[in-house]
Structures are given as structure tokens and as C-alpha cells.
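sry for the spam today, last one i promise. C-alpha cells for design, 539 residues
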């Protein structure tokens, strides 16, 4: 399917061609509203014109903090038409992390929902390159409203969205121009922004269509947030490539999921680990078997994947992808079902090896580090923005070292086996233990801390902190939570907290977190639990 000439692989050109090809066909469904391909293109052109009119130029970076709704889709398209770079920012970001995303990415503008204005106002002095803020008022706002920012031009979304369309003779983006900067969770202490070129995003959309069999008859449902790469790059762009329809939901709801799937007539969808578990543990219903779904992308494939297919009458597909690299393996609907726990085989465009600590291949079936490199130019990421030294450090002996562990079976199928990295996976969010530790260490009563995952209910990991107090200092768990909440995303704040006299260390001075986790999981009922204490966090 690699038939699009390289110089034509831009999202701007793909959008324009599909709008002309499909015209009145529905591209987006959103709670009773339907938008055609032509309407999506025209809305995007007007937003692009409005952004250009206030000074957003090709190559400039624009941060986005918006809840799911059609406007965020049009905004992504509009920035692509201009040739600007979208920087999706997790809506839970606040404090130093929000300032870091904005300043490290060199964003000259932020487009945000009104609900996030106060957060941005608090960090604006830390972002000297920020020149424009575009506010999307919420549905309850009546009449004009002023937002106070220093040395920043503030614009209202309606003025941007209703501007004259971007001129037809506007500069055309190149296949090599960066389209997106997607930030990692910062597993080495620094969140890294991976640069995705236009050609990479278009090629990835092609691979989804090719490997999963998407067609123009499909309705592709997503309830994942648009600031995650999955919603845009696994659903919206593949749907655009296939000439299919996107059904967009505001957010995931266990109780509403199957109803929404049925109401929109979805034929394809994606689920992350926590969502899979919540649906699996839910009481059975007629709705979960009366749908039109053909495939469901489940990442990672759960232990009950075969039973999942039988119960929900849907083919499970999967993949292995990395924010730092892109797509490496895919497991399609026609693969052998005895391989369903795998993430599929390496794509032809990717070389994948399982290596030991000396970068030597291990035997089939043995576990080692998953290492990647590309066989095709522009198929993978183009490095970390403003952090070239970390990009060089991640690549050794011509391999990108993922920090993930896995094995290849005798047929070449990849099985994920865990992570080397300081990464916690909580309900679909990747959390850097190092970043949480860095915040906790700022508390004057903390001498040392170890943050790690513990298994709680719903078959999911939760964040736990084991803390050593400074001599003579007093600190209780609730105070620690109050200290953390304004400085990190809500999902990063430890749920479980304990205090010890000292932490266990290896001979080389590394905290033995596996010992802490094992000991904690044997006595979870005795450990302080934020949720049991009734402390609620602002999202």
C-alpha cells in the first residue's frame, strides 16, 4: 500500500484529497451531530486562516489543552494546513510540568479550554516565548469575558474559528516538516518530546488501514483523549486515510461504552488496559453483544484475550508501539488466535531484536530488551525536540533501546514481558516514578522517597510512595497529598503512602523497589490509602 509518493505524504494534502473525494460523506459523529468530509475541511481551513491572521506561522509550535469535541480535531487539521506543529498537552498537567511542556517545546501559542485558564496564568511567567493564548469558553459562559495575562495576546475561539479561510496559495507543508511533538512520561527524569514528521504520520495511518483492514464502510469509535497519540494516530488519521467515519466520545465510561458503541454503529474501536479490565469486570448485558464491532484494538492484550473475543463477539487486535519510535509490530484480525497474547510480528518497515546487556541477540523464547530500528526512511520518529543528547543516549550500536523487555517466539511474534524503566502504568496513563519522587523530595520533611507501582483492585497498578522522614520532622500522608496535588497531574499523586526508617538499597546504591512492592502487597489493607481516607483530587 506504500503508493503515495514521498513528497505528497503530508496531512494537509491527505485532508484536501479526501475532502474532494468524499465530499458529503460523514467524517465525524459527535453526540447527534454529523460533519461531512467537506465540512471538516472547510472548518479546518477557517481555523487555519484565523490562526494565520493572528501570526501563527509555518514551523511554529502550538500547545493544545482541550477536551474531546469536534473543534480539537479541526484544530489539529488546521495546524497541519498551516505547516505549524501541534504539541498535545495532557489536560491533567499543571504547575512545573505544564510549564515544562510549554517552554521546552518552544510553544508560541496555547489553545485551551476555559477550565484551564487559571493553570496557564500561574505558569505563564515561566514561558517567555508564549505570545498567544486562545481560549475556548465553556458552555455556561455568557457574554464577553476578560482573561488577564501579562505580555500575551488573548483571543477568543469564535474569532479564530469564524475567520476567512486560509488562502489557497498559502505555503505548502513538506513531507519532512514536523507535524506533532508528543511528550513521554519522563521515565529518565525528563519528559522528552518525540518529533513526528508529516510523512511518518501519513505512513502510520496507511499501516493501520493495511494491517487491520479498515475500509470506507467503517465507523471508528474513540473515547480516548485527543492529547494521547492513540485517538489521533490510531483512529482519526487512519479513518481519514480509509475514507471512513469517526465517532468521537467525550471520555470513557464503563456504563455508557456499549450503549455509545451501539448508537453510533461502530465497527472498530480501541481500548487500553484499564478500560479492558473495567469492561471485563462489569456485569454482562445484552448491549455488549448486540453491536456491529468487527475489531477492537486492545493494548496490551489481556490474559483473558480469547475469552474477551468470545464474550464480546469481536476480534481482538493489538500492537507494540513506542512514543520514541512509532509502530513496531501489529497483530491483525486474521492472525492465528493461539498468538492472541502477542503484539504481532515486526512490520516489514522495522527491524526488531531482543538483546542482552551486551547488545547481543538472545535465543528465541528468551527475554531481553526490545530494541528497534527502521528499514524505511521517515517511518519512525525524528528524535527528541531540543534534547539531542538524550536521543543519542537512547541509540546504541545502531539500535534504539526501548527499556522494555520482551521475547520473540519461534514464529517471530513479540510478547511483552515488562519494563526496565521507572514507569508506572495507571489506568491508561504512563507515570514517571522519577518525576513523582522529584516533587516529593522538595517537601522539607522528606529525607528520601521511593515511588513504585502496587497492584490494587480492578487488576490495575496504583502509585505508592515509601518515605523516610528527616530527623525530628513530622509528616502525615494527607499533608503529603496536599503538597503534591498542585504540582503534578492528579493521576500521578500517590494513592498509597507509608513511612519507613530507611529504604533497602543494593550494593551499588539503587533502591530495591521490588522488595518494597512485595512487602506492601502482602499488607495493603494496613497501608494508608488516599481513596479510603476520602481525599478527592481536582482533575
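last one done:
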Amino acid at each position: 500500500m506504500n503508493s503515495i509518493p514521498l513528497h505528497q505524504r503530508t496531512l494537509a494534502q491527505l485532508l484536501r484529497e479526501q475532502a474532494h473525494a468524499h465530499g458529503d460523506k460523514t467524517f465525524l459523529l459527535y453526540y447527534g451531530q454529523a460533519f461531512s468530509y467537506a465540512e471538516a475541511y472547510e472548518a479546518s481551513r477557517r481555523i487555519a486562516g484565523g490562526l494565520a491572521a493572528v501570526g501563527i506561522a509555518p514551523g511554529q509550535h502550538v500547545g493544545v489543552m482541550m477536551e474531546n469535541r469536534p473543534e480539537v480535531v479541526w484544530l489539529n487539521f488546521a495546524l497541519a494546513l498551516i505547516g505549524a506543529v501541534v504539541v498535545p498537552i495532557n489536560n491533567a498537567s499543571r504547575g512545573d510540568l505544564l510549564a515544562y511542556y510549554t517552554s521546552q517545546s518552544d510553544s508560541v501559542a496555547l489553545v485551551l479550554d476555559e477550565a484551564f485558564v487559571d493553570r496557564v496564568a500561574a505558569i505563564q511567567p515561566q514561558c517567555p516565548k508564549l505570545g498567544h493564548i486562545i481560549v475556548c469558553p465553556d458552555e455556561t459562559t455568557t457574554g464577553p469575558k476578560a482573561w488577564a495575562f501579562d505580555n500575551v495576546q488573548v483571543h477568543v475561539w469564535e474569532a479564530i474559528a469564524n475567520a476567512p479561510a486560509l488562502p489557497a496559495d498559502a505555503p505548502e507543508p513538506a513531507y519532512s516538516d514536523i507535524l506533532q511533538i508528543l511528550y513521554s512520561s519522563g521515565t529518565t527524569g525528563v519528559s522528552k518530546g518525540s518529533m513526528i514528521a508529516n510523512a511518518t504520520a501519513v505512513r502510520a495511518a496507511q499501516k493501520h488501514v493495511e494491517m487491520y483492514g479498515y475500509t470506507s464502510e467503517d465507523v471508528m469509535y474513540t473515547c480516548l483523549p485527543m492529547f494521547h497519540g492513540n485517538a489521533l494516530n490510531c483512529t482519526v488519521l487512519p479513518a481519514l486515510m480509509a475514507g471512513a467515519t469517526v465517532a468521537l466520545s467525550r471520555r470513557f465510561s464503563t456504563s455508557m461504552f456499549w450503549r455509545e458503541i451501539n448508537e453510533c454503529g461502530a465497527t472498530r474501536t480501541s481500548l487500553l488496559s484499564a478500560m479492558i479490565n473495567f469492561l471485563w469486570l462489569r456485569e454482562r448485558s445484552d448491549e455488549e453483544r448486540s453491536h456491529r464491532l468487527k475489531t477492537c484494538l486492545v493494548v496490551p492484550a489481556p490474559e483473558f484475550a480469547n475469552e474477551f473475543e468470545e464474550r464480546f463477539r469481536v476480534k481482538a487486535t493489538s500492537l507494540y508501539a513506542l512514543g520514541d519510535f512509532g509502530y513496531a509490530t501489529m497483530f491483525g484480525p486474521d492472525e492465528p488466535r493461539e498468538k492472541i497474547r502477542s503484539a504481532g510480528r515486526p512490520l516489514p518497515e522495522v527491524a526488531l531484536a531482543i538483546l542482552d546487556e551486551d547488545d547481543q541477540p538472545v535465543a528465541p523464547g528468551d527475554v531481553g530488551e526490545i530494541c528497534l530500528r527502521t528499514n524505511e526512511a521517515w517511518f519512525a520518529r525524528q528524535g527528541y525536540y531540543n534534547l539531542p543528547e538524550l536521543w543519542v543516549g537512547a541509540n546504541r550500536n545502531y539500535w534504539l533501546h526501548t527499556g522494555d523487555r520482551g521475547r520473540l517466539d519461534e514464529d517471530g511474534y513479540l510478547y511483552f514481558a515488562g519494563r526496565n524503566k521507572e514507569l508506572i502504568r495507571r489506568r491508561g496513563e504512563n507515570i514517571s516514578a522519577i518525576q513523582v519522587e522529584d516533587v516529593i523530595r522538595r517537601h522539607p520533611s522528606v529525607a528520601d522517597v521511593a515511588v513504585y507501582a502496587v497492584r490494587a483492585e480492578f487488576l490495575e497498578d496504583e502509585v505508592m510512595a515509601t518515605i523516610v522522614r528527616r530527623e525530628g520532622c513530622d509528616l502525615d500522608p494527607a499533608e503529603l497529598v496536599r503538597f503534591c496535588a498542585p504540582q503534578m497531574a492528579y493521576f500521578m499523586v500517590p494513592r498509597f503512602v507509608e513511612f519507613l526508617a530507611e529504604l533497602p538499597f543494593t550494593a551499588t546504591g539503587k533502591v530495591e523497589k521490588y522488595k518494597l512492592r512485595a512487602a506492601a502487597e502482602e499488607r495493603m489493607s494496613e497501608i494508608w490509602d488516599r481513596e479510603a481516607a476520602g481525599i478527592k483530587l481536582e482533575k
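Residues 37-53 form the longest helix (17 residues). ok im logging off now
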